[in-house]
Amino acid sequence: MALIPDTTRDARKVIVASSLGTIFEWYDFYLYGSLAGIIGAQFFSGVNPTAAFIFALLAFAAGFAVRPFGALIFGRLGDLVGRKHTFLVTILLMGVSTFVVGILPSYARIGIAAPIILILLRLLQGLALGGEYGGAATYVAEHAPPGERGSYTSWIQTTATMGLFLSLLVITTCRVVLGAEAFAAWGWRIPFMVSLVLLGISVWIRLALEESPVFRAMKAEGTTSKAPLRESFGSWPNLRVVLIALFGLTAGQAVVWYTGQFYTLFFLTQTLKVDLQTGNILVAVSLLLATPFFVIFGKLSDKIGRKPVILTGCALAALTYFPLFRALTHYANPALEAAQAAAPVVVVADPAECSVQFNPVGTSAFTSSCDVAKAALVKRGIPYRNMEGTGAALVRIGANEIVAYDATVADSATKATFDAALTARLTEAAYPAAADPERIDTPMVVLILWILVLYVTLVYGPIAAALVEMFPARIRYTSMSLPYHIGNGWFGGFLPTTSFAIVAATGDIYSGLWYPVIIATLTLVVGALFVRETKDVDL
Questions:
Q1: What domains can you pick out in the chain, each with its CATH number?
Q2: Contact 460, 160 (CB under 8 A)
Q3: Which residues pair with 397 in a beta bridge?
Q4: Interval 461-473: pLDDT, tens
Q5: CB contact at 8 A, 62 and 39
Q6: Per-residue confidence (pLDDT) for residue 268, from 0 to 100
Q7: Among 84, 119, 127, 476, which is most buried by a count of CB atoms within 10 Å?
Q8: Could you give phi then psi for residue 448, rounded to 5 degrees?
Q9: Is residue 363's pLDDT more than 50?
């Protein structure tokens, strides 16, 4: 922690202890996202691979869906009884839930009970995380001297990235030591079980902390809120600020964050077919190189303000996501780019026969010839265009055409013939089954990933200070937690699932980027018009 600014020993202890505990909590939460592919196979093996991966992403998103409710529950508790005791509860809930995921039997052993229990555990994790962030950010900010809150709280902002980095490091180490086959079979459980050790360390660290000076003063003066929820959301002046914080700051910050740290990994491994271990290493290196900029931009926001730093990140993301992801394809899987240019794939079908390849409740059956054609291409990671036609759907690869079948009437021989013909035509057109490790331009891929994470540091470095400064101390924990977790839990947390579904529906591997681009642009406009600068306010 040599980069921490000059502070008293007590303030330094607050930053280190809060940051370490929060890193471990983010580690617990992000393990699932990093292992979504394997978890899909373990707990959703009753459906086809494409649906399994979507279900795994939905279970990942379930943890984000309940984060605002965790913010309400634990935010209220934090404003009533204190910051310290609340985030002790949240870390216990997170750590125990994560450990149980590591020992949970798979679908093959206990059937439908496995995914149900998994989703319940993800919901508990989401509730815990909903209470954790607001407590840590408020606690550190209330210890910071005026003029340094951006610098102090930026250390809390590094914890999400460091938690992701730690999860990737542990996963990669286990995979190298055990081998890919053993890791996929049972070794993936080890990173979850390690969380029990991290839980013990986190609780020990946080027990040594004292309550924040601002809360102690309010307690002594008898000015703490008796009804934080009503004061936060039942009063229009404060509710208006909550809405401005959501749409003018956290929604855009969230989609930039999740695009830079999660969607990039999904895009590399699921779309560009980069080996999981290689993808994890590439993302981990970019995170490591970019992480100091959380503190740099947090400190910069103490000088020039929170608003210009955050909105600059949103603007850069909206303007450059499409060219950056196209460049990522060029440098990570040039064979896919070349094949797409030389022999573009087109699905010719009656639009009335085509379904969106997205089934959140697992009750739909995609059986039409159009559905069969698209599912086969999505499974292989092949980009395609849609063209209106009549009759049975067909897949056009360059000059070749393969007619798809209706799954409700086709026999096994018909299905096998279609799959064999599709594979043969794709191979002839030089579509790669996986990215060639020898052709990955590692320095350029890392550079692009680093730029994407740099945008994350712009929007995320100052966000804690900005939110803390927007609300009065008596209802600060509750008021700041809700817009943060709606932004990050809903707008951000659903990004991988939403973007994946858009890509599966359109066939365009870049179309999922419209979601973060639109949300980032919305925040840029709302933030520019309605967010006021807060860097000099008195807490």
A1: 9-333+436-530 (1.20.1250.20), 337-428 (3.40.30)
A2: yes
A3: 345, 400
A4: 999 899 989 988 7
A5: no
A6: 92
A7: 476
A8: -65, -45
A9: no
What single letter denotes the amino acid at residue 48?
N
Q: How far apart are CA 102 and CA 354, in angstroms?
A: 39
Distance CA 70, CA 78 (A): 11
Q: Which ranges of 251-291 would DSSP assign to H, the alpha helix?
A: 251-258, 264-266, 276-290
Q: How many CB atoms lie within 10 A of CB 6?
A: 7
SS3 state of residue 280? helix
Joined together, the tokens standing for residue 200 give: 């013990």
DSSP SS3 for 402: strand
Burial 293-319 (b: 16+ CB within 10 A, else e): bbbebbbbbbeebbbbbbbebbbbbbe
DSSP class of 352: G
Predicted pLDDT at 17: 73
Amino acid occupying residue 283: V
pLDDT of residue 365: 60
Q: Would you state the pLDDT for residue 39? A: 80
pLDDT for 43 beyond 90: no
Q: What are 205-215's pLDDT values in tens digits? A: 778 777 777 77
Q: Which two tokens stand for residue 455?
A: 């945008």
- Residue 365 structure tokens: 């059956």
